[in-house]
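PROTEIN DESIGN WORKSHEET
SECTION A - STRUCTURE
LENGTH: 309
TOKENS:
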């Protein structure tokens, strides 16, 4: 086979690309260099890389987390492997990783959880980088859920699937859809992330189990209207989003002080998610009914899909 190897060293001066022919098998293959290219980094890019890799510790911590999360992912995979029958062992691990930054408008996303560490822990090949693969093709990098939704729920009837993770996303699966090109999927806004944030601040619990705290509060209409005024809700798909947009700043811009979170805030944010899901569901059905969406919004085959709590 002919393989192109890519490398940039600690000098951060650019990228070297070398094409080689590799022949033979075993421990002594024959390697013949065929071509070589050096592509220098522009000065501005080199400075930006240097800043990220500087002595302030940001890159250090990201590097540590990449390994630690990879080890934890590998441990989870090993535990799942142990539950399989001895005569039906796993052959492959597929890992989405942990998203730490998602910038779809810039075509950039970053998931950590080193696949090499997962491979070492499990002893299996690892398939990863789903989001970045989609974004390299011009997709939004999210959500992944519609791929599974078509397999699980596709059939003889039109189906709208709502997934409530940290963000909320929808999948529209037309009746008889036999490929992904017919499916529409995108993030519609916050799912449980903001509710969890407020619950943690208000009572120190990770999430509002069974809506216990929200039921004790009252929806603050002025805050809800301010939150719903965000332009993301009016943006047409394909689109994706995450904690980079729906975060403390989003709440502050609506006049909400997260530090003073209480049952009213949890109730308001719960109503926000319900309202976003309800409005988008109605909108999708109306659009599909009048045929305006068909063929206009190809599915971004990649994703952000958190398990439904």
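SECTION B - SEQUENCE
RESIDUE ASSIGNMENT:
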């Amino acid at each position: 086979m002919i393989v192109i190897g890519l490398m940039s060293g600690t000098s951060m001066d650019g990228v070297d690309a070398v094409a080689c022919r590799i022949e033979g098998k075993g421990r002594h293959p024959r390697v013949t260099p065929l071509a070589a290219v050096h592509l220098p980094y522009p000065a501005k890019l080199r400075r930006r890389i240097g800043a990220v890799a500087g002595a302030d510790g940001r890159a250090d911590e990201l590097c540590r987390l990449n390994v630690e999360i990879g080890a934890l992912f590998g441990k989870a995979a090993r535990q799942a492997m142990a539950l399989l029958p001895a005569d039906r062992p796993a052959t492959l691990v597929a890992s989405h990783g942990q998203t730490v930054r998602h910038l779809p408008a810039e075509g950039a996303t970053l998931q950590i959880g080193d696949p090499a560490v997962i491979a070492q822990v499990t002893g299996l090949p690892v398939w990863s980088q789903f989001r970045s693969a989609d974004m390299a093709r011009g997709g939004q990098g999210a959500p992944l859920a519609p791929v599974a939704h078509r397999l699980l729920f596709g059939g003889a009837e039109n189906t709208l699937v709502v997934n409530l993770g940290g963000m909320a996303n929808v999948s529209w699966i037309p009746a008889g859809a036999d490929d992904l090109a017919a499916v529409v999927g995108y993030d519609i806004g916050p799912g449980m992330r903001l509710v969890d944030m407020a619950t943690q601040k208000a009572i120190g619990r990770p999430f509002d189990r069974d809506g216990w705290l929200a039921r004790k509060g009252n929806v603050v209409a002025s805050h809800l209207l301010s939150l719903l005024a965000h332009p993301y809700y009016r943006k047409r798909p394909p689109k994706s989003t995450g904690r980079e947009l729906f975060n403390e700043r989003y709440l502050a811009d609506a006049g909400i002080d997260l530090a003073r979170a209480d049952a009213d805030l949890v109730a308001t944010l719960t109503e926000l998610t319900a309202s976003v899901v309800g409005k988008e569901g109605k909108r999708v059905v109306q659009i599909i009914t009048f045929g305006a969406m068909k063929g206009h919004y190809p599915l971004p085959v990649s994703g952000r899909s958190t398990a439904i709590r």
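SECTION C - NOTES
The first helix runs from residue 43 to 52.
The chain has a mean pLDDT of 86.
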